[in-house]
User: What shape does this take?
Amino acid sequence: MSAHRTALEGFEPFEYDAQGRLRCQGLALDELAERVGTPLYVYSAGALLERVQRYKAAFAWAPRLLLCYAVKANGHLALLRLLAREGLGADVVSRGELERALRAGIPPERVVFAGVGKRPDELERALRARIYQLNVESAEELSAIAAIAARLGVEAPVAFRVNLALELETHPHLATGTASSHFGLPLDEARALARSLPEGVRLVGVHTHLGSQITRLEPFVEAAQALIELAEALKAQGHPLRALDLGGGLGVAYRRSKDSKDSKDGMKQEGAVPGPEELGAALRPVLQGALEELELTLVLEPGRSLIAPAGALLTRVLYRKRVGGRWVVVVDAGMTELLRPALYGAHHEIVPTRLDAVAPSASPTEPVELDVVGPVCESGDVLGRRLRMPLPERGAVLAVLDAGAYGFVMSSNYNARPRPAEVLIDKGEARLIRPREPLERLWADETNGRPILRLESPKPEGS
Ligand code: LLP
Assistant: This one.
C-alpha cells in the first residue's frame, strides 16, 4: 500500500490522510462519490489557482504578460470564472469557446482566437466583440477577415500563427509545430503576406503553438528566438506589433512513479517534466530584453499545465475478473468520460480512494498486475494498462488522476451514456457545478421521424 503513497508524491490537491483515505482540501473523495454518484469529475480550485500564481511568478520578468488560458483544456464556466478573477485572458478556437469565456467574465480585450477553420460567423462575432487578436493560419483566412472587417467598418487585429517546422517529441496527434502539420503559416509565407496586407487588417502580433504535452524546454527557446526575429523584421517594416504569443504546450508528469519508463507511443511523460518556473527561467535570457526593446506583450496560452493536475475522475469498481494471467477491473467510467488513454495511449495514474478497500482474498499488501477497463463496447476502452496495485474490492472508488485537462471536454454520449457530474472543491467546500446529464437530454433534440423542418427534395438532374 505504501506504493500508492509514493506514487502520489507531488500530487498536491489529492492526498492520503493517516487512515489511508484520499482527500482533497480535507474532503474524503470516496464520500463525495457516494453522495454524487460516479463517474464524477472533481476539481480543486486551490490547485488551479496555485498553478496560476506559479505562472505569474515565473514570468514576472516580462515587461507585460497576458496569460490566455486555453479554454479547450476545460471550459467549465466555474473554472473560467476563477481564472477571470485572476486577470487571465482566454485562448479560444470556436465561437462556443469565445462565448464561454465572455460569459465567465473574461474581457474580450484579453481573448485570442486560433484555429485553422474559423467560420465567417465566428470571425464576425470575434470582430464585433473586439477581441485582442485573431491568430491567422492561412492567406485565404486573412482575406476573409479583411472582407468581414471592411463590411463591419472595423480594423481587424491579427497575428500570424507561424509554423516553425521544429522537431518535437510528443505524440504525433499532439504536435502542431512540425513541418508536415496543417497548422499555421510557413515563415516565408508569413513574411510575404506581411508585405501585401489587405485593407482593414492590422498586423499586431506573431504567434506560434508548438503542440501539446511538450516536456523539453529547447523547442520553446527555439520558438521564442524565431518569433523575436520575425517580430523585429515585421516591426522594421512598420507593422504596429504589440504581442509575441508563444502558445501553450507545456507538459505535465502524468506518470509519477520513479521506476516507470517512457510509454511506447512516443508520449514522454515521466521523469522531471519542467514546470512554469523552468520554462520562465529558460525563456528569460532570450525574451526579456527583446520584449522590452520591441515593446511587446508576452502572450502565453497554457491549458494542460494549469488544469490537468487540479482534476481527478472518480469511478467505481463494478466487477473484477481474470483474463489470461492478469486481473481486469471493470469500472463505471471509460473512454466516454476520459478519452485520452484510448485515443493517445496516454497514461493516467489510477489510485484507490481508500487504501483499505482492497479485496481480502488478494492479500492487501501485495500489488497485482491489472488493467482498469471501462464499460464501453470497444476493445480500446482501457483506462489503465498493466498497473500494479492491490486488487480493489467491488464497489471501491478509484481516482484517475491528472484528469482536469482534456477530460470532461472530450467526453461523449457514445453508447448512450450520459455525461458525468462535476464537482468543484473550493476552500474546503464541495459544490456540484454540473449534475450528471439526465438521460432524457440524450434524445431531447430528436424526433421519432416527425420533421422539424420539411426540406425540399433536390430535383433530379435534367428535369
Ligand atoms: N494554444 C493553441 C493554439 C492550442 O492549439 C492548444 C492546444 C493550446 C494553446 C493549449 O495547449 P496545452 O497547454 O494544453 O498543451 N486533446 C489533447 C491535447 C490537444 C491540444 C490542442 N491544442 C490531449 O488530450 O492531450
